[in-house]
Amino acid sequence: MSSSEDTSPGSLTATEPVRLFPLPNLVMFPHVVQPLHIFEPRYCDLLEDALLSDKQIAIVLLEPGWERDYDGRPAIAPVACLGKVIAHERMPTGRHNILLRGLHRAVIRRELPASRAFRQAEVDLLGDFFPASGVARRTTVQRQLVELARKLLPDSAALHEQLDELLASQVSLGMLTDIFSYTLGFPTAVKQRLLAEWNVDRRAALLTGKLAALAQRLELPPTENILEFPPRFSLN
């Protein structure tokens, strides 16, 4: 799927079932890279299977109440993020460190019956949808998002330089919203709402509202600012 400025929505059904990696505290987004430390046997099996074929894994958020059935098949969010392993380190202990790059939003159509140690599902892949009605405002919205992010950045020249480099690469509004949604320290429920929204203009409006509310709390001590570069290492 393309994330270019298309004026019509589009989806693509994945030709093969995707491997599901459910996590209770991580929402993955397209365009970002997430480090993961994998140690549970079922997810080591999942990774080995991925490495032997397309290297793709879908990160999906566990729904509240997952603790009651973590070793089974607790409920998962309806939208995941399909990613691809771009780096892999096999450790002597049998554990693994990987880097996973987000590729697409993935709407779960049907989870498959249990036949492997890990879960699998049939999905529809979603590209960013840019409504024609939002063309005139998109540049202004992108500028507002950047200004709000600057206010929330800690007072660090290095962090502002990273943001400048990001903007110099001429990222699309869709990519920018995904990067900010992933990097800013929102609750997982908010991040899941942002992931589930494939309409870029609606996603940008939701993100702008959340950032504006946080910007009103600028009186907080610097240690309570919400932007983290780089993001914290996630464990499964």
What's the structural domain tally?
Answer: 2
- Tell me the helix content: 25-40%
| Total number of beta strands | 8
**Residue runs with pLDDT of under 50 for 5 or more positions:** 1-9, 220-236
Instruction: Order the strands across the largest sheet as they lie in space.
Output: 2-4-5-6-7
Under CATH, the homologous superfamily of the largest domain reads: LON domain-like
Mean pLDDT: 85
Could you give the order of the helices and strands?
A: EEEHEEEEHHHHHE
Structural class, by secondary structure, is: alpha+beta
Which class of the largest domain in CATH terms?
Mainly Beta
CATH fold node name of the largest domain: Archaeosine Trna-guanine Transglycosylase, Chain: A, domain 4
**Principal-axis shape:** globular
Radius of gyration: 18 Å
Number of helices: 6
Largest sheet: 5 strands, mixed, barrel
Gap between N and C termini: 28 Å
Strand content: 25-35%
Architecture per CATH nomenclature, i.e. the level-2 architecture of the largest domain: Roll
Structure description:
The protein is α+β, with helices and mostly antiparallel strands and 236 residues long. It folds into two domains: 11-127, Archaeosine Trna-guanine Transglycosylase, Chain: A, domain 4 (Roll), CATH 2.30.130; 132-224. It is built from six helices and eight strands. A five-stranded mixed barrel has the order 2-4-5-6-7. A hairpin with a 5-residue loop joins strand 5 (79-90) and strand 6 (96-111). Helix 4 (173-183) crosses helix 6 (200-215). The chain is globular and about 50 Å long. Residues 1-9 and 220-236 have low confidence and may be disordered.
